[in-house]
Amino acid sequence: MKDFKKKLIFLTLGMIPTLSLQTSKVYAGSFGAEIFCTMRDGGNDHESSWEAAYTYIKKQKGGFFKVSPKQAAAQITESVIRDREAFSYCIEFLDQLHPNRKLIRDLQKEEERKEKEAQERENNRKRLEKELEEANEDFSDETIERYSY
Predict the structure, then answer these.
(1) For residue 118, what are the domain limits?
(2) Are 70 and 61 in contact (CB under 8 A)?
(3) Residues 69, 82: contact at Cβ < 8 Å?
(4) pLDDT tens sequence across 49-89
(5) Is the Cβ–Cβ distance between 79 and 32 less than 8 Å?
(6) pTM higher than 0.85, yes or no?
(7) Structural domain includes residue 149
(8) Per-residue pLDDT tens over the stretch 7-46
(9) What is the DSSP string of 2-61?
(10) One domain, residues 21 and 92
(11) What angle do the packed helices 46-61 and 69-82 form, to 10 degrees?
């Protein structure tokens, strides 16, 4: 019975920091969204609003691992979407949190196009080699020397 109580105590104590970290993470993302949206609504540019919100989220997160810019942007987006009524004025600014998605898609399409072209060139090369081999089969196996008269 004592072992069970010890395990229960350790389990409970182990869960408390996890729950507090998750709560602070949610709170940090929510308040980060408030910072970002309030600054944007006040007429500040994207960069200064983003830096203020991101800095706050990084400081509130704590722990061993740091929050990446993508994670912070996702937290802000999630907070704005979850509470649309409070952040209705901020929805128009969310696209600037993820500015390079179009660029990434364009780069992927360009890479796929280049791979397709390379595959087509390889197929053409193989086809031409095959045709050349077939044309060479028509000639005799005798060696033709250029200067033998």
Answers:
(1) 100-133
(2) no
(3) no
(4) 889 898 898 888 777 788 888 888 889 989 888 888 888 88
(5) yes
(6) no
(7) no
(8) 556 555 555 444 444 444 445 567 888 998 888 888 888 8
(9) HHHHHHHHHHHHHHHHHHHHHHHHHHHHHHHHHHHHHHHHTT--HHHHHHHHHHHHHHHH
(10) yes
(11) 100
Burial pattern 132-147, b for ≥16 Cβ within 10 A else e, equals: eeeeeeeeeeeeeeee
Domain-embedded: residue 80: yes
Contacts of range 87-96, beta carbons closer than 8 Å, 24 or more positions apart: 87/33, 87/37, 89/37, 89/41, 90/33, 90/36, 90/37, 90/40, 90/41, 93/36, 93/37, 93/40, 93/46, 93/49, 96/46, 96/50
Task: Count the domains in the chain.
Answer: 2
Gap between the Cα atoms of 55 and 20, Å rounded: 20
Q: Is there a contact between 40 and 93 (Cβ–Cβ < 8 Å)?
A: yes
CB-based contacts of 60, cutoff 8 Å, min separation 6: 24, 25, 27, 28, 31, 32
Q: Supply the angle between the helices 69-82 and 2-41 in degrees, to the nearest 10.
A: 80
Q: Is 80:34 a contact under the CB 8 Å cutoff? A: no
